[in-house]
Amino acid sequence: MPQSEDRPREVRRSGRRDLLRAGALSVLGSGRVDVLSARADGIAPAEPGREAARDGSPRAVCLPAHYYQQFDADPGLGVPAEGYGGWKREPIDLAWDRTALVVMHAWDCGTRDQYPGWYWAVEYIPRAEAICRTVFPRLLGAVRREGFRLFHVVGGGDYYRSLPGYRRAVELAGPSPAPPEQIVADETLRRLREFRSGSVYVGPHNEEDVRRGFAALDFAPQARPRGDEGVAEDGHQLFALCKHHGINHLIYAGFAINWCLLMSPGGMLDMSRRGLICSAIRQAVTAVENKETARGELCKEIGLWRVALAFGFVFDLDDFVSAISGEQAP
Fold first, then answer.
1. Rounded CA gap, 152 and 276, in Å?
2. What is the tens place of the pLDDT at every residue in 242-257?
3. 305 C-beta neighbours (distance < 10 Å), count
4. What is the pLDDT of residues 159-201, one digit of tens each?
5. Checking DSSP bridges between strand 32-34 and strand 24-26, what pairing results, if any?
6. Lowest mean pLDDT: which of 32-41, 71-80, 111-120, 315-324?
7. Helix crossing, 136-146 with 317-325: angle to 10°?
8. What residues does each domain of the chain span?
9. Contact predicate 211/220, CB 8 Å
10. CATH number given to 101-177+186-294
């Protein structure tokens, strides 16, 4: 409900600190999620980029977080939403043993020469490949070097089933629940689906390349799991890994921030419904874009806003790597 116009804006906006300190965040449209802040859990606050003092209290690291202040709309403006606080940046404490990085759907999609139709339909593949080459080595190198928890979320084939981390997830989780019951398709529904397949995505002339690409799917070389790193193919398995390791905050990297990372099994919607905070690293994601948004990557910006508003926080690569490494951010 809008606040009264005579209430000073400074007072109205001061609530953001109370919000963060209390650790309360409402997930729009998907129930309430409690943010278990480091302070609320009795975790000693850390200096920026440094672990907490080794006095027996759980380890924490402090790093700047981007969040979005979605209040107060100003009815006195021509566009009331322009009264919102907008993007803010403030240090928060992360509980080391309660937080994990999740690399999701970081695939080797072959080359344009091999699967031209796949590249024609999925325009973000080159951007994802560039992130794997330029961002993942530094990000995953720091995570592994420092012993930060790392999970992988997979899908689209069986390229991961022999990995020890996947077998462990299956052992912890047990059988996955049956998928939701589907409506029986009649001729009217089939016609609508055929129209969408031919006219919306992926296009009849691209179908065979997409099929062949998924048949040969594998991890991107820079994102291949090592050792016994947890590997999950759905939210049921990822939740089992989180419970086993005591994780309540997942920080996502992978593709795409406005699609699989939100909606696919093991994505943010799935895990937020199980009570976890879900965040993202800006430089480690890209988005599904369209003709009108691709030049400026507007869908990525909207996707990150959605993460910050509904699920958790947005972190910068330099800040995250520096914080877990105990270094000063550049």
1. 16
2. 999 999 999 999 999 9
3. 16
4. 999 999 999 999 999 999 999 999 999 999 999 999 999 999 9
5. antiparallel
6. 32-41
7. 20
8. 101-177+186-294
9. no
10. 3.40.50
